[in-house]
## 1
Amino acid sequence: MHTSKQFETQGYTILSKFFEQAEINQITSIVDRIYSQWREENHYALIEQQLINMHSLTHPKYFQDKGHERVEFFNLIASKKLASRLTQLFKTDIYFHNTQLFFNPHSKEKQPYWHRDLQYSPIDDAVQATEHHNMLSLHVRIPLVAEKGVELIPHSHTRWDTELEKNVRFELNGHKNHEALPGSVLIELEPGDVLIFNAQMIHRGNYALNPTRKALDLCVGKPHPLVVRFLDPTGLPTDKESKHIHNCSWYNVARELAITQN
Ligand SMILES: O=C(O)CCC(=O)C(=O)O
């Protein structure tokens, strides 16, 4: 199916073999350094809270005395090739919101849980449901190792929950958020592939099928007031850095939004 048609009908699409291995290697070498710093700083939380991701990989605290590497990272993750593809797909201005890195939890006991991304924000579920059709928040997943790492409920980007989905997501009426849900698809990706999915569709990770996981997700999208309020300007390029970024379109939209927020 054509990528834009697939996204429109299913809420996700895969750009197979989009990146060269050399590009993945460059991204991996920076991500590995950041991830290792984060693991040192979050050693106890990682185990006690069974964390499955970290966020804000572009934060300056990961680039002390490595200013040039921050610019390199901004360049690598928002390449002209990727930004043009998203513009072609969504025909709207996209802004850069944040980044996340997904990995397996420390303990095999931890189960992946179905959710829509804003579920754990203070925004009421009814408000999210009302605004669902006006939002376009995306995860652009760049797997750094092969994974069968995410499960999606196709079409759930166009509608709100069935009774069962609601019970499972919110663990109501005796349900658990890790129960199997009907109609799900498990996505299999190789390094070089890119998965784009709607952050507000129902989804969960998969840990058990992957001996190891390392998926860099770019959180980008069409600005919406419910989401833009969480934009952290410290994760964006400075004026000086912007001058060295080849394709500043996502960052410029974000920087404008950050200014109007404050
Ligand atoms: O890959 C995962 O472990 C979960 C993905 C997820 O929940 C997300 O991208 O919001």
Note: The chain has a mean pLDDT of 96.
## 2
Amino acid sequence: MRHTGHVTLNASEQLVVAAAAAAAPSVFNTQPWSFTFTEDGMEVHADPHDAWMPTASAARDVRLSCGAAVFNARASLARRGHGSRVSVLPDAGDPLLVARIAVTDAAPDPVLDELYRWVDSRRTNRYPFRPEGVPADVLALLHDAARREGATLRLLEAEPEYQRMLTSIRHATWTEDEDVREDRDARLSPRAEEPAIPVGNLGPVPRGGRPDDPPVRDMAVGLDLPGRGSAAFEPHPDLAVLETSDDDAGSWIAAGQALQRLLLEATGHGIAASFANQPLEDAELRPDVSGGAAHYGYPQMVLRLGYATEQPPASPRRPLSQVIRRTAA
Ligand SMILES: Cc1cc2nc3c(=O)[nH]c(=O)nc-3n(C[C@H](O)[C@H](O)[C@H](O)COP(=O)(O)O)c2cc1C
């Protein structure tokens, strides 16, 4: 068997890998991470910096976001011809150290290399999707992508599950804490120094409104944002829940990696996604999201999947100088 030795990334590789990690989705675009490069790899730290956390489920959402960043780093390393080995939560004395990624001279994983192609074009897409559903063979690929990272993508195909999910999302939307909503609006307002999510990325205001709200999140309820517009949404979007068998920090990080793997796979097949995590942020509603399922898991993300009608612009990222804590050379 070939010996696999460690590889030290050069300065430009460190920047490329950090940029890929930072392109991951994160809760309300808070980018709650920082990266350290060492002689033999990279560390991903949970780092809420001074970011306001928009949800009551911040601890989970931060780890999910960091898990997605870890996956992008792995894909970027594969593209650069390196192998990688991930240790999740490697230091019991440092719970904010999410993962240590050893960079090795083993052959890169060709699937990760291929998925890297979609890192920059993946978006959270809050625009209406085309009416047709995602083909079963593509859904199977997304299910398999989640499974490879230790999570389950449960499709809500049957009633009463589908309707129950819609009801749950709507209920959570309508009962959301007023202070949380106002705080989020303040960060999206054109008066904010730099809106956390640009107008073009929020998608249109759903037309119609209560009681038929679509399962897409209007991040800026009540804000009248110039240029946003309104639109009717597809009548029956594909909905799915990403689940894990446990509900601890390690599971959230696995769910984040699974999320990013399936989102990149989806992007490669022309499938867009947005999220409706409202019921997961409400401690009372969350147990209902997966509680009625035949196989019970812990829900980590609620996804809407479909064919895009529009490609939103990229949301801004923090400069890499703020995100990289230390370089190896
Ligand atoms: C843990 C987590 C939770 C999220 N929850 C929602 C959500 O409930 N609704 C939504 O529209 N987007 C949600 N997002 C998407 C982020 O808002 C999005 O990733 C961020 O604004 C960056 O934009 P991008 O994904 O287009 O790069 C979530 C992302 C993560 C990682």
Note: The pocket of flavin mononucleotide is lined by residues 25-29, 61, 64-65, 68, 123-124, 126, 197, 201, 217, 219, 274-277, 315 (CB under 6 Å).
